[in-house]
Amino acid sequence: MTPTRVTAERPLAVIGAMPEEVAPLLAAARDPLEEGEGPYRWHRATLDGVPVLIAACGIGKVNAAALTQALLGAGAAAVLFTGVAGGVDPGLRVGDLVVARDAVQHDVDVTPLGYDEGQVPGEPPVWAAEPGLRDLVADAAAEVAAVEGVRLVVGRVASGDAFVADPVRVADLRRRFAASCAEMEGAAVAQVCARWGVPWSIVRSVSDTADNDASVDFLAFTEVAARRAVAVVRGTLRRLA
Fold first, then answer.
1. Given the residues 20, 21, 37, 183, the one annotated as active site
2. Per-residue pLDDT reduced to its tens digit, 49-58
3. Using an 8 Å Cβ cutoff, are 79 and 189 in contact?
4. Domains of the chain: total
5. Strand pairing class (12-16; 30-37)
6. Which of 9, 167, 205, 235: disulfide with 228, CB 3.0–4.6 Å?
7. Pairing status of strand 97-105 against strand 40-47
8. Which of 9, 208, 213, 223 is catalytic?
């Protein structure tokens, strides 16, 4: 059962923060046509038999939210965010996969006014992924994990405008939010989609363990980690076709 109806008029938006996270998708797409609005550009195409909008948003929550809004305006029926992240779950290793059960903005703190940690006033404490799309992506991720010999976790994605490279901060994110991974865009995408009632999902491949070696690991393993996330996206599209 498909979680949402994807058509040429209502395509699936696939977003990565960095161009290299979506370049393999664009290279495999059929008849990509560049479109845009204002400063934002994307490609409308067909990939694995599914109409898609493929775009790189740039790093950070504001970039992610702004492009997501533009893609919804272009007709996106659902949004799938792909790319790499830092592992927070101590059981995760470089190359493992995380599919979002839900997402939280870990750098939001309005607790003096009585809100939960990470909660934006007027919003829920976390944004829960739509179960149908979540399960479809998780099924594709499980297939990739089995082939690649890596671990899959369906858990919480913690987003914030900071590159986490400190074991103390990693432990803090795990303690405060029960986060599986840390990145800089996903929860902003979730917030925008939730406001519009649009299904969303996030798949991240672990490029580093968000510790003192995070910057080195990130540079060394981004390509292989991004490749695994791309494989999950394409497995999801085959399930939607």
1. 21
2. 999 999 999 9
3. yes
4. 1
5. unpaired
6. 205
7. unpaired
8. 208
Query: Residue 13 forms beta bridges with which residues?
Result: 53, 79
Q: How far apart are CA 112 and CA 100, in angstroms?
A: 28
| Cα–Cα distance, 233 to 77 (Å, whole number) | 16
Residue 4 lies in a domain: no
Over residues 104-141, the pLDDT tens digits come to 999 999 999 999 999 999 999 999 999 999 999 999 99
Task: Let me know if 208 is a catalytic residue.
Answer: yes
- For the chain, give the longest Cα–Cα distance: 52
Handedness of CA 164, 168, 172, 178 (dihedral sign): positive
Give the per-residue pLDDT at 217.
57
Per-residue pLDDT tens over the stretch 132-184: 999 999 999 999 999 999 999 999 999 999 988 888 999 999 999 999 999 99
Q: CB 169: neighbour CB atoms within 10 A?
A: 18
CATH code assigned at 128: 3.40.50.1580
Tell me the H-state helices in 92-157.
Answer: 131-148
| pTM of this structure | 0.93
Measured N-to-C along each axis, helices 186-196 and 61-73 cross at an angle, to the nearest 10 degrees, of 30
| Domain that includes residue 81, residue range | 12-240
Any catalytic annotation for residue 21?
A: yes
Q: Is 26 within the bounds of a domain?
A: yes
